[in-house]
Amino acid sequence: MAKTISELRKQVKPEIQATAKAKALEIIADMTLSETRKARGLNQGEVAKRLNLAQPNISQIESRPDVLVSTLSQYIEALGGTLELHAKFPDGQTIDIKPFK
């Protein structure tokens, strides 16, 4: 009889699971906007519709080397998320940057 995924996971050592999870989070953190959109199961047309823009505008947003924070925030919200900004300083202090819409 075939084993379920949950049964197979139980056989993997916790340290292996932790390493795999850390690697997955690292991969996700390095995703481009278009990769993030695709991972959310959306195409450019769907995002454009949610933002009330034309599809070529989404292509431009995704290919820009630099984007306005307000544009990025709207894009992330169209994907169903929320953009959060944090400033980290060498002394260990972290400050949450409040939205400025």
TrEMBL record:
This is HTH cro/C1-type domain-containing protein. Residues 33-86 form the HTH cro/C1-type domain. SMART domains: HTH_XRE (SM00530). Pfam families: HTH_37. One of its GO terms (molecular function) is DNA binding. Gene3D superfamilies: lambda repressor-like DNA-binding domains (1.10.260.40). It comes from the Bacteria. CDD domains: HTH_XRE.
